[in-house]
Design brief:
The chain has 133 residues and is α+β, with helices and mostly antiparallel strands. The chain has a single domain (16-105, 116-127), classed as Roll (Thiol Ester Dehydrase, Chain A), CATH 3.10.129.10. It is built from 2 helices and 6 strands. The longest helix is centred in the middle third of the chain and has 20 residues, at 52-71.
Length: 133
């Protein structure tokens, strides 16, 4: 994990929920962030696909960390997610970037990918409004 973000001290410990899921914040700087989540059998829904809540977590966290890299610590005020395909893969990646930031809020977008045999497939997109705290 690295971070050039305000107040980051260079590192950011994962949230308790992120630790429970086993996610890893790969980077968060310059209005961008990337979060990884390895496939685990206990995170699937019927059919063997990654549960939508885990996909949503990746999108929300990627948006929030991207925003925090520009505006400082913030919280999600709202987000919308569109699921595009079932979550089938060995690794899941959320990539977020800030679309617009002000002193108090940021609008961010995240794309969530399933990675299987090295190939990425877009499985969800999300937008979020984040408020600085």
């Amino acid at each position: 994990m690295s971070g050039d973000a305000p107040g980051s001290g260079g590192k950011l410990a994962p949230s308790a929920f992120g630790s429970l899921l086993g996610s890893e914040l790969k980077f968060w700087r310059d209005g961008k962030a990337e979060v990884h989540l390895p496939f685990r059998d206990d995170l699937v829904q019927r059919g063997g696909f990654l549960h939508g809540a885990a996909v949503s977590y990746l999108a929300d966290t990627a948006c929030a960390r991207a925003a925090a890299s520009l505006v400082g610590e913030c919280r999600t005020a709202e987000y919308k997610i569109n699921f595009l395909a079932p979550g089938a893969g060995d690794l899941f990646v959320g990539r977020g970037h800030v679309v617009k930031a002000t002193r108090r809020t940021a609008i961010a977008r995240a794309d969530v990918f399933a990675v299987k045999d090295g190939a990425e497939k877009l499985i969800a997109i999300a937008t979020a409004t984040l408020m600085r705290i």
